[in-house]
Design the sequence.
């Protein structure tokens, strides 16, 4: 079984994961743009039982577009958001794709294309959705 490792910029906060994520999702929503400072965000969704965190994480919560709760966890030293939890996916944790030092599977879908910058392009065979993921995933 593969093991994955992710960390913040300063490496005070890190996490290891037993096995691959259940799915990887690209999100173009404005909140993900704000979170990352990038034109889109990408999250690897693992089951919470796969994750082991090392270091201190500080949480900041908000309400998602769906009206459900979401909490970002970031390194208090360097500010990198490493992972987040969602009321929508209680068994999963989303982890910032760019924080991984190991190779992850490809994304399964692109969401929030309504807010995608026109100069961002994804492979044609990647399923896309104008808003969030179709239920339940
Ligand atoms: Zn850090
Ligand atoms: Zn988003």
Sequence:
């Amino acid at each position: 079984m593969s093991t994955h490792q992710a960390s913040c910029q300063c490496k005070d906060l890190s996490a290891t994961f037993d096995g691959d994520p259940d799915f990887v999702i690209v999100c173009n929503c404005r909140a993900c743009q704000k979170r990352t400072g990038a034109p889109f965000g990408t999250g690897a969704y693992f089951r919470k039982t796969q994750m082991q965190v090392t270091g201190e994480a500080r949480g900041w919560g908000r309400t998602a577009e769906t009206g459900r709760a979401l909490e970002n966890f970031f390194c208090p030293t360097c500010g990198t958001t490493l992972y987040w939890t969602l009321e929508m996916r209680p068994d999963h944790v989303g982890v910032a794709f760019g924080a991984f030092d190991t190779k992850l599977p490809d994304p399964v879908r692109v969401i929030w294309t309504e807010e995608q910058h026109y100069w961002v392009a994804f492979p044609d065979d990647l399923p896309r959705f104008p808003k969030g993921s179709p239920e339940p995933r």
The helical segments are 30-36. The chain has one domain: 3-115.
